[in-house]
Amino acid sequence: MTTEPHPADAPDLSVVVPADAGPEALRASAASVLEQTLRHSEAVLVDPGRDSATTRACADLAARHPRRVRHVTAARGADPRDTGADHARGTWVTFLGPGERLQKDAGRNLLAAALDTGADLVAGTWTRLPAPGEKLPRGAEQAEPAWQRPLHTRTRTVGSLTDAPGLVVHDSLVTGFCVRRSLLDPEARPAVRHEEAPPVGDLLFGVRAALAARTVTLIPNTITTHRAAPDPAADAPARITAAARAARLLARHGHPGLAAARERALLTDHVLPCAAALLSMDREERARTADQVAPLLAGHLGADALAPLDPVARACLRLLADGDADGARDAAYALANPGTVVSPVVAHAGRVHWRPGTEAAPSTEAAPGADPLDVTELGLQYRPFARLDLLNTVTRATRSQGRLLLVGRIVLPAHALPGRPEVTATLVLTCRDQPARTLTLPVDDIRYAKDALVWRACADLTRLLGARGVGDRVWDPALRVTAGGETLTTPLFAEPETVKPAGALRARPRLGRLTGDTWQPYVTAHHRLAVCLLARRRPARLAEKLLHYATHFRPARALRRRLAAVAARRKRLAGQAVKARVYRTLLLRLPVRKGQVVYEAHMGKQYGDSPRAIHEEAMARGLPLRPVWSYAEKPDGFPADARLVRRWSWPYLVALARAQYWVDNQGFPHALDKPRHTTYLQTWHGSAYKRMGFDEARVKTQNDPQRRRLQRAVDRFDHFLIRAPHDADTLGRAYRLDPDKLLPTGYPRNDRLVAAREQHAPRPPLAEALGVPDDRTVVLYAPTFRGGPGHKDAELPLDVRRFAEEFGSTHVLLVRSHYMERAALPATAPGTVHDVSGHHDVSELLALADVLVTDYSSIMFDYALLDRPLIHFAPDLDAYTADRGSYFDLRERAGGPVVDTQDALHEVLAHLDEADPHWKAARARFAEEFGAYDTGGAAAAVVDTLFAAHTPRRRPKPCPASRRRPAERSGT
After folding, report:
1. Distance, CA of 927 to CA of 930 (rounded, Å)
2. Residue 112: how many CB atoms within 10 A of its CB?
């Protein structure tokens, strides 16, 4: 409970609350001010005098809290916010919009930051109410802009807006900030005022305040909540106008870069959401919105503003600016459903255009944004008919003789079906809750039209759709089209105004009409046609009410809660924490199973690396071992001569507890202790360029329990493979390993590479499997992992599409993203680019590659053994090493050129034959320094050492003199 300030005390913070949203919203905003933990704060209620109920609410609040609430009446024509600011007594002033509320500690956090830093403006974060149908993150009750959190990661003070561009590039300062009252004085120069009428004035006020402030402090605390949900279509005209004026304002104050960024943000923050809103409008409203927005976009769609956008987004904006409401709606559907072809794209002069009739535009310009309707980057011209996701629009839906009559139109690009082969189609209905249940109905007619396939189907749902009535009430139709030996299935895009005439159709569920009596076509939230079984007649409605009562009255609710509790308990019992406890307390007591070896590579994601080489060597010798391989998700590609167990499953835990040997290249789960009877071989997965283990800055900043957990995990190792003295100096020291545990055998996975170098073997069978022609140069692109915990999606530094366009006739690009990431590759000409990220064994890819392009990944150390061209493409090398740290300077000791732009990379590749001989000596030094122990016999040496009890005595393979360490060759 807060205490009110003494009447003589001037408040520290004044909160201006315009009373223009009704008495209820006013009371909620005022209550949030009164509940502040900041003692010296006041609410200034500005009454526009238009509503007697609001006036009474203001007067009542002021009477009940005379020391904390002041009632001010705005003069006719005056802005309520400026009126409130003029009457504010606080040193600092903040504003609340209609219905907005201050977070309980907002005032205290704002004031503390202002006093600590002396800034003129302090900004925190804000949240808003969700829009209808908007999905929120789990546990969240309100939404916040995606750009907001990166801006407020920590408390910081900036003297220039270029140090925090998001403040003025986006609509950050619409709420959630306070400003020094002296800046709001009408006599101040410049005076920060609401010069335009709402809502434009509200959007520009924050930009003016930021420009006037000497310094700005950003804090990570939430200040304002309950901001109104956006209405992208209705808000678009005001927001576009405000953003354009804000850009001009920034340019006048000497910030042309921020002005250009504001123009780009206008398109992504406001115009594209407006286009997305067209999907939910009827034809008349859609046309009206396009007519309002189109004139405002003049001058905002320059090439610089459009270049960073997706090609479909560029086309969507251009169509909206042209007033093409239906075209913009279709493009918005493609943005919501990536990959969907919504327009009959055509090829002309080597470029692909959104629709016929745009070929005469300056589309020969390949620069992104030069022609917004140039969509060559999408690579649609390379996709066969079966891989095209074509927009299938329902143009008519009605009831005909008790059946559902559907007429539709499928967009058909010019290249999709050359020669117009015979086409057939069927209508497929899929049960939403049971996808395996489908019903196939014939299509009455399908034929070619200009730029499209038109079709007609009449479905007797009453007779043919034999739903039970329970668990199969919703069905999703799609059209399956076959032409030229290819088949595609496309869902039905529909609008409510098109589907409404279909009305309702009689239903005959197999469990009787008490479960439902009507099939109702409708449009889903994803704008697709579906049919749902409903209860419309009296018997079915009565049965539905009885069923609802039976499942919702008190005993039923209690039963559901109990079942939910049981399900939650079962889930906890199947969780890793419980399994780890059972493993430690019970499974570790199990006896050893002699000869059992548990192998794991990259946490079960692959069957490859050194564990695979060791396994294959042991199997080739016929050793009496019991191999077990773990897999993370699917066992596809794992060996048939081993028992397969899913990672963290009970069989996996039992296998680990009873194993005589553990072999992996990264680390078995840290929570699992090694049994006393087990020998653990850690093969590791690569030599170190970046700092590892206890040398990492991230680990150094961890607390003591976290570092102890890492140390316990590392202490489980009995043997650790190294491939050069460099590994002992880096990995051995970084993980605090006993030198006696280090085995200088080299990596078993690299035996294949040493053999490929010495034997000059032809291309491996993998080349034929991938369809790589003998006359093409194979380039393997394998970047390192750049993310952090939980990071999955990777954005490749290499522009794969550009590479394919320039080198596709002479080179084949193999792209292998890191096993902890996934990367989406663009469509390119067939045979020019292959995604080999899912290939289990990277050694096979290295042996196939004629050139390796990597950054600073440890794969560079392995590939150097082949004595083939190695190129380091590392645009972010300096930033990465500054963040992660490194053990050496790559530019000084690299075995190939280090480039930081794609232009430089292409230049190196184009003249590789001339340049590579100059790198042979450096590459040899690189291989010697980082792979001195990789002699080709690592797998045999490891098997001899690890499985000595199961291996007949044999003479070790001699080390070739060319691969011995200098001290060994000199006899010392």
Report:
1. 5
2. 16
Q: Taking 90 as the threshold, does the pLDDT of residue 789 lie above it?
A: no
872 has which bridge partners?
854, 898
Q: Quick one: pLDDT at residue 8?
A: 53
- Rounded Cα gap, residues 470 and 473, in angstroms: 6
Question: How far is it, in rounded angstroms, from Cα 756 to Cα 750?
Answer: 10
Quick check: 216 pLDDT over 50? yes
Q: Give me the pLDDT at residue 359, please.
A: 54
User: Is pLDDT at 1 greater than 70 in this prediction?
Assistant: no
Predicted local distance difference test score (pLDDT) of residue 971: 39
Query: Rounded to an integer, what distance in angstroms lies between the CA atom of residue 700 and that of residue 50?
Result: 63
Does pLDDT of 880 surpass 50? yes
pLDDT band of 414, cuts 50, 70, 90: confident
Per-residue model confidence as pLDDT tens digits over 80-135 = 999 999 999 999 999 999 999 999 999 999 999 999 999 999 999 999 999 888 88
Residues 301-354 have pLDDT tens digits of 988 889 889 999 999 999 999 999 999 999 999 999 999 999 999 888 888 899
Phi-psi category of residue 24: left, alpha or beta, with phi > 0 → left and psi -120 to 50 → alpha: alpha
Report residue 249 as tokens.
Answer: 């304002």
* Distance in angstroms (rounded) separating the CA atoms of residues 109 and 221: 7
Cα(658)–Cα(661) distance, integer angstroms? 9
Quickly tell me which residue has 């520009």 as its tokens. 204
543 token code pair: 């049965």
Q: 3-state SS string over 226-258?
A: EECCCCHHHHHHHHHHHHHHHHHHHHHCCCHHH
Is residue 962 scored above 50 in pLDDT?
A: no
What percentage of residues in the chain have a pLDDT greater than 70?
94
- Residues facing residue 854 across a β-bridge: 872
**How far is the C-alpha of 397 from the C-alpha of 497, rounded, in Å?**
10
In angstroms, the CA 412 to CA 344 distance is: 5
- Global pTM reads 0.82
Handedness of CA 916, 921, 926, 932 (dihedral sign): positive
How far is the C-alpha of 68 from the C-alpha of 49, rounded, in Å?
21
Mean pLDDT over 687-712 rounds to 91
Alpha carbons 125 and 145: distance in angstroms, whole number: 9
Task: Check: CB of residue 925 under 8 Å from CB of residue 956.
Answer: no
8 Å CB contact between 686 and 727: no
DSSP 729: I
User: Do 519 and 533 meet the contact criterion of CB atoms below 8 Å apart?
Assistant: yes
Residue 335 structure tokens: 């943005």
Rounded Cα distance, 772 and 721, in Å: 35
The tokens describing 303, both together, are 């090439």
State the pLDDT confidence band at 702, using cuts at 50, 70 and 90.
confident
What is the spatial distance between Cα 412 and Cα 484, in angstroms, rounded to a whole number?
A: 14
What whole-number distance in Å separates Cα of residue 691 and Cα of residue 754?
27
Q: CB of 722 within 8 A of CB of 732?
A: yes
Structural tokens at position 494: 């529909």
Per DSSP, what are the bridge partners of residue 299? none
3-class secondary structure, 410: strand
Dump the DSSP string for 43-60: EEEEE-SS-HHHHHHHHH
* Sign of the CA dihedral with 182 first, then 187, 188, and 194 last: positive
- What is the distance between the alpha carbons of residues 473 and 519, in angstroms, rounded to a whole number? 9
Question: What is the Cα–Cα distance from 637 to 432, expressed in whole angstroms?
Answer: 32
Residue 16, judged by CB atoms within 10 A of its CB (0-12, 13-18, 19+), counts as buried
pLDDT at 502: 87
Is residue 19 a contact partner of residue 57, using CB atoms and an 8 Å limit?
yes
Which segments of 103-179 does DSSP mark as H helices, in order?
106-117, 148-151, 166-169
Amino acid, single-letter form, for residue 260: A
Element at 681 (helix H, strand E): strand 679-682
Residue range 184-196: average pLDDT?
A: 83
